[in-house]
TrEMBL record:
Organism listed in the record: Zavarzinia compransoris
Role noted for this protein: May be involved in the transport of PQQ or its precursor to the periplasm.
Gene (name only): pqqB
CDD domains referenced in this protein's UniProt entry, alphabetically: PQQB-like_MBL-fold
Pathway, per record: Cofactor biosynthesis; pyrroloquinoline quinone biosynthesis
The protein's name in its UniProt record: Coenzyme PQQ synthesis protein B
Similarity field: Belongs to the PqqB family.
Top-rank taxon, per record: Bacteria
NCBIfam families per UniProt: PQQ_syn_pqqB (TIGR02108)
Highest classification ranks of the organism: Bacteria, Pseudomonadati, Pseudomonadota, Alphaproteobacteria, Rhodospirillales
Listed InterPro entries: Metallo-B-lactamas, PQQ_synth_PqqB, RibonucZ/Hydroxyglut_hydro
Keyword list, A-Z: PQQ biosynthesis, Transport
Annotated Metallo-beta-lactamase domain residues: 51-265
Pfam families: Lactamase_B_2
Length: 298
């Protein structure tokens, strides 16, 4: 099984277009230890012929250009992307769908909650059902996707997208934030780009996996507050911190995990910059801070 890390940053990318915090400045300046990153999306395949895109970021066109396995390869119009799977209705997960409006046929998979969010916005009518059929997925029920892999969606602690807050219809509903278990029959990969808390059920599901791609949005919960750029904590945004007693590093320590990789890393997170104390602490705990374009075989 092959996993293309098309993008590894959180919403806004790195550096975010309007951000001048210290590590973002290093990226603006082109420093070698702070390479730019696009917003999180991956592509998965066991045969490297057909691919399933997981989350369609606003940076999708640039990500396809940077990854030759996703280039058109036959006829006048073609794409090896045969399925798109969404883990939620966040802006940085869905807006890349509009890049795929030029006549290509693919199946769009998501929970009923996510597909309802798309259906409520007429702009996604640019992807008509007869060309882009919607497949509602049930939690904890395996299903096959393009590229020869099987996926099981599962609920994780999270929150509804900020732009839907106050509307009430999705608040507290299972399926609003999901993780994915992906397997080719030999290897097992967990993809969890957003997670507000790590409970025992999630720990049990992760234990024994060959590769974990996990929410690394913030290093510490009050990171944005300390930097003076936002009043929101990581928890308020629906993300568990990397560090701290309830953070991902501590809560997932001791589990049997083949490879640990943080994804969806926010522009404010100091682990994005090589040589920082935070990067060193994450790596010492066995976590990899990836760059865009990595091709991982679990």
């Amino acid at each position: 099984m092959h996993i293309l890390l098309l993008g590894t940053a959180a919403g806004g990318g790195f550096p975010q277009w309007n951000c001048r915090v210290p590590n973002s400045l290093k990226a603006w300046q082109g420093q070698a230890g702070a390479p730019a990153r696009t917003q999180t999306s991956i592509a998965v395949s066991a045969d490297r012929k057909s691919w399933t895109l997981i989350n369609a970021s606003p940076d999708l066109r640039a990500q396809i250009l940077a990854n030759p396995p996703l280039w058109p390869a036959e006829g006048l119009r073609h794409s090896p992307i045969a399925d798109v799977l969404l883990t939620g209705g966040e802006i940085d997960f869905i807006t890349g769908l509009l890049t795929m409006r030029e006549g290509h046929r693919f199946t769009l998979h998501g929970t009923a909650e996510t597909l309802d969010t798309l259906a409520a916005n007429p702009i996604f009518g640019a992807l008509p059902d007869e060309r882009v059929p919607r497949n509602p997925i049930a939690l904890d029920v395996p299903f096959r996707v393009a590229g020869g892999v099987t996926v099981t969606a599962f609920d994780v602690a999270g929150k509804i997208p900020l732009y839907l807050e106050g509307r009430g219809s999705l608040a507290g509903r299972r399926g609003t934030t999901i993780g994915l278990e992906i397997t080719d029959g030999a290897k097992r990969v967990l993809f969890v780009p957003g997670c507000a808390a790590i409970d025992e059920a999630l720990r049990a599901r992760i234990d024994g996996c060959d590769l974990l791609l996990f929410d690394g949005t913030v290093w510490r919960d009050d990171e944005l507050i300390r930097l003076g750029v936002s009043p929101k904590t990581g928890q308020r945004m629906g993300h568990v911190a990397m560090s701290g007693p309830d953070g991902a590093i501590a809560r997932l320590a001791g589990l049997a995990i083949g490879r640990r990789v943080f994804i969806h890393i926010n522009t404010t997170n100091p682990t994005l910059v090589a040589g920082t104390q935070e990067r060193a602490e994450a790596e010492a705990a066995g976590w990899h801070i990836p760059q865009d374009g990595e091709d991982i075989e679990p």
